[in-house]
TrEMBL record:
Domain LysM: residue ranges: 712-756
Protein name, per record: WD40-like Beta Propeller Repeat
Pfam families: LysM, OmpA, PD40
Principal location: membrane
PROSITE patterns: LYSM, OMPA_2, TPR
Record lineage: Bacteria, Pseudomonadati, Bacteroidota, Cytophagia, Cytophagales
Compartment(s) of residence: Cell outer membrane
Family matches, as SUPFAM superfamilies: DPP6 N-terminal domain-like, LysM domain, OmpA-like, TPR-like
Length: 756
């Protein structure tokens, strides 16, 4: 939209000026709208709604002192506007006036209905005041400072590392002969620029200038090999899109937009962050199905040119306000993002979402010096962007590694309490990550909510036989179910399909009589944990017994309708023997649960033999993970419970060594795994419930989630460095350091693991 009006002559009517001002306002061109609203108020002072829009225009143009002045004008005249009170409180927070801001938010909470969407974010802002007071005496001091030689007189933001000696960022300073004005913030629209970093010099280069247009480009992230660049492009009066450029023949190609699943027509999609594996994209968008404003979304790559329908990251991360500039740390398994709707210091703050999974993460405010009362956005290891000094500038700081940096934010003082919002729909418009029962995000463990609630007509088959014997029900050539006969000589198979017409029940190879009952059940269905077995064994391991105890601890026996035990073997041995072995494993688990109090009638065993392996690899640890029993629980009432992360020991190590590697206390490892010995043998499985553990040293411990990833064991040679090894194998230097927990120079003969 382009409108030109002579403001000096005031020849147009008041209504015409308001129409033009409102057009700029609705288009998000707040800097232009401010001029019109100011002149309208000069012509006719005292117009409350115009004053409010002027204040909001100033706020959205980052002119915070002007915004505060106009909001204060409204409040002095006893004009009640909930949004005006809210933003006045926000601006007080931005000045670190936490006590005053707390009073403003408290007043607002008393004046608005608790069903008002402003109510929840006001509560969060009030909590942010308490956070500011709580953290005022702490400081994660890392020599936080403006970056030398990078910042200009305009807005500079979004710095990311391209190579060890080159960074890329966005700037609103002049970079092209033709560069349009930014009608929201003033100045020029941003473009992408890059710099070479020397020991004491910073030199601009033109490596990325081909990607710029007269409109707006903002940085994003690079693929692991540095040959794909995902970034944001915004064209004239059109929503922003995520585009991708490839490095071909020594230069960057013309950027192409990602498909319509990412760039939904009519809505903004921007600020992409690609995972190290290249198959998962995090980004911000205002598309339908969000919680409010800009939200963080996630999509999985379906093919080289197609992406799956994105999933909203849910109410733990997103709020009714705005969540932007996500950065996913593949090394740490955490998501850093900026929000102006969480409990924070004012403006946009940085937050870290970290948990067993993103279904139920804990949210940490990064605190000072990273967060300020102003806007802090575009976090990237080593860089931050903030307008705490006026315009946006690039800041840098000292840190020893990505995991060390992110782990330092996981403090009790930084933890914020979330207002959880309820999801009422499962349509793709409102599909959020907490609704998706099988979306395993880099890590198969997660806190599960209700998976399925069903009411169906089922058949139960009952009969009698010798106490303690095994009853086997065959309902087809492919499906055989086993259960134990109880002390009274009775057995029962529950929740069978209503469509069963032919079946046979055998005990000790002989068919026995049975009866069929037709029953209707309401039930909730959950996937619990897996337990693992040693080679050619049906004996329960110590951690498996703890898993079964936890099942009883997290599910009330009176609430349990049924437990299914799906058992498996590895591929070594005949198919018939492996089927029989997998059934014995299920019966062993059933006997343990029976001793813990679950009646045999409430359990079933489905033996799978060597079918349905978790991994088709033939390593010894892949075979161990295939030797498993998967537990599924059916309950009468809904239950919430936690899954652990699973780790396998590749070598014999001590309990103290495992504790050191995972940064988890020995007492917790003992408690979670039923450990009685200080020596942990090769093949031992560890259950870990604390999401604050470090990335394990893969020389000793492998996560179950990495089962099918490609790792190479490498023996260090004379003259090798981490950098030379990374270059040799096309790996990422920092990931080699993190997964091997390298703290000093490598020694010849030392074995390390490389993730390819």
């Amino acid at each position: 939209m382009s409108l030109t009006v002579s403001l000096g002559g005031f020849t147009q009517s008041m209504n015409q000026l308001k129409t033009i001002a409102d057009q700029y306002y609705e288009a998000g061109e707040f800097s232009e709208a401010m001029d019109f609203y100011q002149h309208i108020l000069e012509m006719k002072p005292g117009q409350k709604q115009t004053c409010f829009k002027l204040a909001m225009s100033a706020y959205n143009s980052l002119k915070y002192q002007e915004a505060k002045f106009h909001f204060q004008e409204l409040l002095v005249d006893d004009y009640f506007n909930a949004e005006a009170i809210y933003y006045y409180g926000v601006l007080l927070k931005m000045e670190s006036a936490y006590q005053k801001a707390d009073s403003v938010f408290q007043k607002l909470l008393k004046q608005i209905d608790n069903q008002d969407e402003l109510y929840d974010i006001t509560k969060l802002q009030k909590e942010g005041c308490q956070l500011g007071l709580r953290q005022s005496l702490t400081n994660n001091n890392r020599n936080f400072r403006k970056m030398y030689g990078i910042n200009t007189d305009g807005n500079d933001f979004g710095a990311i590392k391209y190579t060890d000696d080159q960074i890329v960022l966005s700037t609103s300073s002049k970079t092209k002969k033709k560069q349009y004005l930014d009608n929201q913030y003033g100045g020029l629209l941003p473009n992408v620029v890059s710099f070479d970093l020397g020991d004491s010099t910073v030199t601009p280069n033109k490596a990325f200038s081909i990607l710029n247009s007269p409109w707006s480009e903002a940085t994003g992230s690079f693929s692991k090999d540095g040959k794909a660049f995902y970034f944001t492009h915004c064209d004239q009066n059109k929503p922003c899109k995520i585009v991708k450029s490839l490095y071909v023949d020594g230069k960057w190609s013309q950027a192409q937009p990602l498909d319509e699943n990412i760039n939904r027509e009519g809505f903004h999609s921007k600020q992409p962050s690609i995972s190290v594996t290249g198959d998962t994209l995090f980004f911000s968008s205002d598309r339908p199905g969000g919680i409010g404003g800009m939200d963080i979304w996630m999509s999985i790559k379906a093919s080289e040119s197609e992406w799956m329908v994105p999933i909203n990251m849910g109410a733990a991360i997103n709020t009714h306000a705005n969540e932007i500039t996500p950065y996913y740390s593949s090394a740490f398994g955490g998501l850093v993002f900026s929000s102006n709707g969480q409990a924070g210091y004012g403006g946009y703050d940085y937050y870290l979402a970290k948990g067993i999974s993103f279904y139920s993460p804990q949210i940490y405010n990064l605190g000072p010096p990273f967060n300020s009362p102003f806007d802090d956005t575009y976090f990237h290891p080593g860089f931050a962007s903030s307008n705490r000094s006026g315009d946006f500038d690039i800041y840098t700081y000292d840190f020893q590694g990505e995991i060390e940096l992110l782990k330092s934010f996981l403090t009790e003082e930084a933890l914020i309490q979330m207002v959880q919002l309820v999801t009422n729909s499962l349509s793709l418009e409102t599909f959020r990550i907490e609704d998706f029962k099988s979306y395993e995000l880099f890590d198969p463990t997660r806190q599960l909510e209700v998976v399925t609630k069903s009411k169906h007509l089922h058949r139960n088959i009952i009969g009698s036989a010798e106490p303690g014997s095994i009853a086997r029900l065959r309902i087809s050539n492919e499906i055989e179910i086993a259960t134990l006969v109880d002390k009274k000589g009775e057995f029962e198979f529950r929740l069978l399909p209503d469509t069963i017409s032919k079946f046979h029940v055998k005990v000790n190879q002989e068919e026995v009589e049975s009866s069929v009952l037709g029953l209707s059940y309401f039930y909730y269905e959950y996937e619990f944990e897996k337990i693992y077995f040693d080679f050619n064994s049906d004996q329960l391991r110590s951690e498996s017994k703890e898993t079964l105890k936890d099942l009883l601890g997290q599910f009330d026996i009176e609430n349990i309708l049924l437990v299914d035990i799906h058992t498996h073997a590895d591929h070594i041995g005949s198919a018939a023997y492996n089927f029989e072995l997998s059934e014995r494993r299920g019966i062993a688990a059933m006997n343990e649960l029976r001793m813990l109090g679950i009646p045999p009638q409430q359990m079933r065993v489905f033996a799978n033999g060597e079918g349905n392996p978790l991994s088709i690899s033939d390593s010894w640890y892949s075979r161990l993970f295939n030797r498993r029993a998967e537990l599924r629980v059916y309950t009468k009432e809904p239950v919430t419970f936690s899954h652990p992360e699973i780790f396998l020991l590749k070598k014999d190590i001590s309990l103290d060594k495992a504790s050191e590697i995972l940064a988890i206390s020995p007492s917790k490892l003992k408690e979670w795994n039923g450990l009685t010995s200080q020596l942990l043998k090769e093949g031992h499985v560890l259950r870990v419930f604390d999401p604050k553990h470090t990335t394990p040293n893969l020389r000793y411990i492998i996560p179950e989630s990495d089962l099918d990833k490609t790792y190479l064991n490498y023996i260090v040679k004379q003259g090798d460095t981490v950098a030379s090894i990374a270059n040799k194998f096309g790996a990422i230097e920092e990931i080699i350091i993190e997964i091997n927990q390298i703290k000093e120079a490598l020694s010849p003969g030392e074995e390390i693991v490389i993730y390819l």
